Amino acid sequence: MNNGKTRLKMALLMIGLALVEGIIKHFLSGFPITEVFSIQGVAFGGYVGARTVSNMNKAKYDVAAK
User: Fold this and answer.
1) What percent of the chain has pLDDT over 70?
2) Residue 35 is part of which domain span?
3) Sign of the CA dihedral running 26, 29, 30, 33
4) End-to-end Cα distance, the chain
5) Cβ neighbours of residue 7 closer than 8 Å, sequence gap 6 or more
6) What is the pTM of this model?
7) What's the domain count of the chain?
């Protein structure tokens, strides 16, 4: 997996997971969907941010090395 493809796959996975959690919330009214979404959002944001910075640094040093 390279560059944007991992972030796209992760975003699609998060959308699918949110759908499953929405179905669970429909049947179990006590399911803490807001808290689960916030935890997932933080994890996804951290992953995407780290991948973006990592790719930017890699591109910067690849150009300097040429």
Assistant:
1) 80
2) 4-65
3) positive
4) 24
5) 47, 48, 51, 52
6) 0.70
7) 1
